[in-house]
Amino acid sequence: RRLDSEGQGAELTEVVAVCLREREATLLSIELDGWVWPITLLPDRSLYRAPIDWSEAPPAGLARARLLGCEPALPAPRLTSQRKRWSMPPCHYRLDGLIWTLALRGPRSQLLGALQGPLRFGLACRACDAADAGLPGALGSALRRLRDTTAALDEIARWPGLDAKRASRLINGLYLSSRLVIVDTHQRRAAERAAW
């Protein structure tokens, strides 16, 4: 865990992004309204373990969430070969629910650090669209639009019903769920010039 000069911890959404990218089981200690909640990310199983399902958090719930600590977690126990059908273990939930709740209602309303710069964003096609198919209103429309085109953050922020914060949250959600296509505009221009 990295601390800045004031002794503050790393930002929650940034840490989740790193854990997902590295596919490491990680125990997060999250402070919210005086309570400390343990959340164990299990990216290899697309699950997280927590006392409650954070995808059901009230709209303002995660906006004040703050990361207190993170450490390697014990992996989830292996399923025995005797079990014929898999069922969700107690206190385990789908990771996509947490990812989208954190992206849309969490403390971060700017682009993640990995998404800074002159970039264009699009939507990676994937067979399973269930997690983000239910995005409301303008976010759902923007998602459908990103299937067909790429756009810079400032362009997306001008789409109907969006602003810079909502566009950033949408892009962060796509990045966290591994659905984002990123095009570096400098590389794109260089490739176009080289083609001529």
Structural write-up:
Helices cover 34% and strands 19% of the residues. It is α+β, with helices and mostly antiparallel strands. The strands form 2 sheets. Strands 4-1-2-3-5 form a 5-stranded antiparallel β-sheet. A two-stranded antiparallel ribbon has the order 6-7. The termini are far apart. The N terminus is likely disordered.
- Overall pLDDT: 83
Helix content, binned percent: 25-40%
Q: Helix count, per DSSP?
A: 7
Over the alpha carbons, how many angstroms does the gyration radius reach?
A: 18 Å
- Secondary structure tally: strands: 7
| Low-confidence segments | 1-7
Strand order of the largest sheet: 4-1-2-3-5
Beta-strand fraction estimate: 15-25%
Shape: globular
Order of helices and strands: HEEEEEHEHHHHEH
Distance between the termini: 47 Å
User: Structural class of the secondary elements?
Assistant: alpha+beta
Main pleated-sheet profile: 5 strands, antiparallel
Secondary structure blueprint with pairings:
Elements: H1 12-22, E1 26-32, E2 35-42, E3 47-49, E4 66-72, E5 92-94, H2 95-105, E6 119-123, H3 130-133, H4 137-148, H5 153-157, H6 164-176, E7 180-184, H7 185-195
Antiparallel strand pairs: 1-2, 1-4, 2-3, 3-5, 6-7
Helix pairs in contact: 2-6
